[in-house]
Amino acid sequence: MPDIGILMVDDHSLFRESLSRLLNGHPGFRIVGQSANATEAVVEFSRVKPDIVLLDYDLGEDSAFSLLTEFKERDPEVKILMVTAGLSDQATVQFMEAGASGVFLKHNNSDQLLAAIDRVAGGEVWLDSSALNSLLAGRRNRDEAVIRARPLTDRQTLVLRAILDGLANKEIAWRMNTSESSVKAVIQELFHKAGVRTRSQLVRIAIEKHSLDWLKQ
User: Fold this and answer.
1) From 1.10.10.10, 2.30.42.10, 1.20.120.350, 2.60.120.10, which CATH number describes the 150-209 domain?
2) Three-class HEC string of 178-204
3) Could you read off the pLDDT of 189-215 as tens digits, one per residue?
4) CA separation for the pair 168, 134 (Å, rounded)
5) Per-residue pLDDT for 86 more than 90?
6) For the chain, N or C: smaller number of CB within 10 Å?
7) CB within 8 A of 60, min separation 6: which ones?
């Protein structure tokens, strides 16, 4: 098996040095370049043409996301493993959808890192349990935000206006010529879209934040 060329991008020199010793001592892995910032990383990337980039999320003033997209534009086949102290749920989704091959958290041990690099080099994805949970949570939060941003359906609008008129569920059902259970179902949809649990909270959110879309004539 040919050596896998690895470029490290991390602004902590001690971490790069210790990681370099670890990987250079492992058969099949070879450090071909190191960079402390985005400017150096782009130059090194073009020079060494790595198979894998170990990219830290926190590069000070530099954007790791912009660097990842730059790498993928220059070489769509390059594998990029985020090696970081931690990522938010939203950032995990963002990096994975931009082409990262995985997220490795620095508090994990060296054997796990070797396994992660080996798996990524083989074209697989590496996500430990916490990174996977972040990915799922981030996508769920994004999907919920999309749902909440959608305009109300005609049925939801009618129910909301009836709530604003102070009608009870039974009265709303009579007005709409439908069942009370159907009204309750629509109210739950409105609660979900508004991110609330009660009628009073729904009314407040509708008036304060959605008067221009949910309440327009």
Assistant:
1) 1.10.10.10
2) CCHHHHHHHHHHHHHHHCCCCHHHHHH
3) 888 888 888 888 888 878 777 766 676
4) 40
5) no
6) C
7) 11, 37
